Amino acid sequence: MIFTISLYCQSTIYYLLLSSSLPEADPALQQTLTAHHDALEAWWAVARDDFALLRDGKKMPEVRHELLTTLKDKLIPLGVLDEFRSAGVFVNWWQQIRYDLKTIISTGWHHSLIPDDYLIAEFFQSEADEIEMLEAQISESQSELAEAVETAQEVAAYEPEEDENVTAAVIKKALKAAIPVLSPTAFF
C-alpha cells in the first residue's frame, strides 16, 4: 500500500538526512539511527502482509491493532521511544491514511491513488531528466529554425500571402524558385 510505503519512505528519508548531515556525529547516535531504520524495515516486512489481509476481508480495526502492536514491539526495545510515544507515532500516521484505506477497501485499488509526480520522482527520475533535456534541445532547435526561416525570408524577399503560414518548407520552395537554373554553358 502506498500509505505504508509513505511512512516507510518518510522514516528512511529522516534516517538518511540525519545520518548524512551528521557524518561526524557521535557513533552512538549513528548506531541508534541505524537500529531504528532496521527496526522499521523489519516492521514493514510484516506490515505489508497485514495490509494485504484487508483485501481478503480482514477488518480495519484488527489490522490496525496488529500493526500497532508489531510497531511497538519493534520500537520500544530500542529504548528511545516509550510505549505511548511509539503508539503516538503509529496513531498519527494511521489518522492520515485511514480514509484512504476505507476508500480502497470499498472501491478497490486504482492507479490514480498514487500521484504521478511521486511515481516519476521515485522510479523514473533519470528518464524525466532526459526528457526535460531533450525538450530543451527541441525548443532551442525550433528557435534556431524560426530565426533561419526569418532570415531566409528576408534574403529571398518573400512576401507571404494573407493566410499563408511561413514555414521552412515554404521558404525552401521560395529559395529554389529564386535560384536561376544553371547550365554548364552559363559560366563560359
Topology:
Elements: H1 2-21, H2 27-55, H3 60-75, H4 83-107, H5 116-123, H6 125-155, H7 168-178
Helix pairs in contact: 1-2, 2-3, 3-4, 6-7
Give a structural overview.
With 188 residues, the chain is mainly α. The chain folds into two domains: 2-114, no CATH class; 126-180. It is built from seven helices and no strands. It has helices at 2-21, 27-55, 60-75, 83-107, 116-123, 125-155, 168-178. The radius of gyration is 32 Å and the shape is elongated. The termini are far apart. Mean pLDDT is 80; it is low at 1-5.
The helix tally amounts to: 7
Q: Evaluate the radius of gyration.
A: 32 Å
Helix content: over 70%
Order of helices and strands: HHHHHHH
The share of residues in extended strands comes to: under 5%
The gross shape turns out to be elongated
Uncertain regions spanning at least 5 consecutive residues: 1-5
SS-derived structural category: mainly alpha
Distance between the termini: 83 Å
Q: How many strand elements?
A: 0
Number of domains: 2
Structure described in brief:
The chain is mainly α.
Give the key terms.
single chain, 188 residues, mainly alpha, 2 domains, 7 helices, 74% helix, elongated, disordered N terminus
